[in-house]
Amino acid sequence: MDDLLESEAAHIETEADEDSTAVSWDSLKGNADQVFALALDLLLHPKFSEDKLALAQQQQATGIVRRNDDEGQIADREAASSSMASTALTPGSLKSPPLARSPSPTSRHGMRAPLAAN
User: Fold this and answer.
1) What are the extents of the domains in the chain?
2) Which of 12, 30, 61, 69 has the largest CB neighbor count within 10 A?
């Protein structure tokens, strides 16, 4: 399929996660029906060749190994993990709504008391 798509100046891409799958393709106008049929076949009859799976596993492993090559990424991950740890909610950790203001002695029902005349 890869050779056929390449010879027709077309490509098909797939993407999936836990609850959705997407298939997209590009082709010349004259080959649209043929590429659409290939995309539909790929969606309805997926094949997982050993060499493509091995390549995907190798790419993922390389990404994991190299994620510590960029100090900016390390800092971002550490900042995200420490901010998540500091904002973790536990039962009873919020005595009042997090954005609520405590009333001041000079306020009543959320309104400021009038200023005293000098």
Assistant:
1) 1-47, 48-83
2) 12
Rg (alpha carbons) of the chain, rounded to whole number: 29
Report the Cα 22 to chain-centroid distance in Å.
15
pLDDT single digits (tens) 11-57: 988 888 889 888 898 999 998 999 999 999 988 888 888 998 999 99
Measured in degrees and rounded to the nearest 5, phi and psi for residue 36 equal -60, -45
Give the DSSP H/E element, type plus range, for residue 66: helix 50-66
Question: Whole-model pTM?
Answer: 0.45
Q: What kind and span of H or E run contains 94?
A: none
* Of residues 17, 22, 59, the one with CA closest to residue 42: 22
